[in-house]
Amino acid sequence: MNKTVFEITQMDCPSEENLIRMKLDGISSIANLDFDIPNRKLIVHHTGDLDLIERSVLELKLGGKKISTELSDQTEFNEKTDQRKLLWSVLAINFSFFLIEMTTGLISRSMGLVADSLDMLADSFVYGISLFAVGSTLTRKKRIAKLAGYFQITLAIIGFVEVLRRFFGAEKLPDFSTMIVVSIFALIANGVCLYILQKSKSKEEAHMKASMIFTSNDVIINFGVIVAGVLVNWLNSSKPDLIIGTIVFILVIQGAFRILKLSK
């Protein structure tokens, strides 16, 4: 048995973990995957050739890099029997906030909230694919990933078009108070999701896991929308909202391309 350690510089939250799990699913030489999100490390216990594993990690373009490979005498691993339950929980939270942010974003005229709702939807896709593709054939998994990726790109492009329309048009200011309040709740939801998924990995460190939310792109986005809401009120301009919306749409498209890589 060999143990190979990868550094994954862009692994900020459990959705990236699930992308990697799905990408490596089906490689028979892998005995166990162990994710260390705070330190952005992936530990793979495997037999045989490493080339396919390393190539699959690099294809996701998450900043993956092999750090070391060594022999390991470990042959037994603790499997998480509650993984599906945890995935259902975070899927429900993310999809609920997709609906909440999309609805309040349209009502309050905030492209920042609309864009953040699509980011929540992107995470929902990852967790959903993890759940619904379990036990499926490789062809079906690829088909699901392809549909999810293209759907996500389509929504983001529609968002870009709307941002341009509002940038060059005369639109009412977005409701800054709704932007701030909803983003604060979304921030809490992201923290809860991360805590739920991480607490089962090390009970003795569970109380410290919440600190990891500050390394997550999702949380940075939430803070970005909050700051945009403050600037909308301060500057009496919709531009901060449109700028944060554009940034998040770009991140959503990047996430969609990562999902599409699962279909190759």
Description of the structure:
This protein has 264 residues and is α+β, with helices and mostly antiparallel strands. The chain folds into 2 domains: 2-71, Alpha-Beta Plaits, CATH 3.30.70; 83-261, no CATH class. It is built from 8 helices and 4 strands; from the N terminus they run E-H-E-E-H-E-H-H-H-H-H-H. The chain has helices at 14-24, 51-59, 83-108, 111-132, 138-168, 176-199, 217-235, 239-261, and strands at residues 2-8, 30-36, 41-46, 64-71. The relative contact order is 0.15. Mean pLDDT is 81; it is low at 202-215.
Brief sketch in words of this structure:
The chain has helices spanning 14-24, 51-59, 83-108, 111-132, 138-168, 176-199, 217-235, 239-261; strands at 2-8, 30-36, 41-46, 64-71. With 264 residues, the protein is an alpha+beta fold.
Distance between the termini: 28 Å
Indicate the radius of gyration in whole angstroms. Answer: 19 Å
Structure class: alpha+beta
Helical percent range? 55-70%
The multimeric state of the shown protein is single chain
Biggest sheet strand line-up = 2-3-1-4
Q: Count of helical segments? A: 8
Mean pLDDT: 81
How would the global form be characterised? elongated
| Secondary-structure element pattern, one letter each | EHEEHEHHHHHH
Largest sheet: 4 strands, antiparallel
Bin the strand percentage: 5-15%
Number of structural domains: 2
Low-confidence stretches: 202-215
Query: How many beta-strand runs?
Result: 4
